Every structure is written in C-alpha cells, then in structure tokens.
Amino acid sequence: MAGLFTFLVLVGLGFFFGRMNEAKHFRSLNAREDELAHITMSNTKQIPDGMTGSAFVHGNVVVSIDYFKRIGAALRGLVGGRMETYTTLLERARREAVLRMKAEAQAGGMTHVANVRLVSASVFTNAQSQIGSIEVFAYGTALK
Fold first, then answer.
1. 9 falls in which pLDDT band (50, 70, 90)?
2. What is the pLDDT of residue 45?
3. Structure pTM?
4. Cα end-to-end distance, the chain, whole Å
5. What is the CATH number of domain 2-143?
6. 35-56 pLDDT per residue, tens
7. Distance in angstroms (rounded) separating the CA atoms of residues 142 and 106
8. pLDDT for the residue numbered 126
9. Beta strand 131-143 with 54-64: parallel, antiparallel or unpaired?
10. Is-contact 136 120, C-beta < 8 A?
11. Which helix (H) or strand (E) holds 1?
C-alpha cells in the first residue's frame, strides 16, 4: 500500500510541476511578445514601401513533450478527438521560434520581417511512433 501511495504522490508532483513549468513558459512568451511587438511580420514576398536594407533572420527551438502529456495523448488516441497536448506543444514551439527570429531582427536594427516561413519536424520518435520532441524553425527577410 505504501508503494502505491508513493507512486501516486510522485505522479501528482510530476503533473503539478509540468503544468507549472508550461504556465511559466507561456507567461514568458507573452511578456517577450509584448517587448517585440514593434517588429512587424508578413508572409508576403513583397517588400513594404519605404523599407531598406535586408538580412536573413531565423530562430529555432526544440521542445520536448513531458511524460504525462504523452500518457494523455495516448488515451486521447484511443477515443479520438483533438490532441490538446500536442496543440500546446506546437504552440509553445512556434511562438518561441518566432520570438527568437524577431530578437535576431531587433539585434540587427530591423523593424519588419517579410516572407516569414515556419518549418516543423519531429526530432525524436520512439518505437511506438510517439512524438518525443518537435523542432520549429522560423525564418524570413528582415528589413529596416
């Protein structure tokens, strides 16, 4: 009985701290997005009027799914429906990659990023083809 209690406490702690770390990351993303809001983006190839100079900018990130989200995704896979665990994983990775790209543009004195593209890839899958980590690469042309 003590072994079961210990297991449940450890599972609860892991779940709690995983949720806490994810919430902390989302707060960090929100704050940094506010700081870099002056750097505009577009996915068109046309250069907006008045823009000069150019530089290639990029940002990439690899985010890993935690054990508890993997269990939730496996259970959702049994009954079908939206995979919320992977949705938040991809959202965090996409937002982080874009922020890193914008930070590189800001470091170069740029104010706009045109022709923004995002590429994602599974970095690690196990024998059951479950996603372990995902990489998102954001790139574009920075302009003044």
1. confident
2. 83
3. 0.82
4. 66
5. 3.30.110.70
6. 999 999 999 888 888 888 889 9
7. 9
8. 62
9. antiparallel
10. yes
11. none
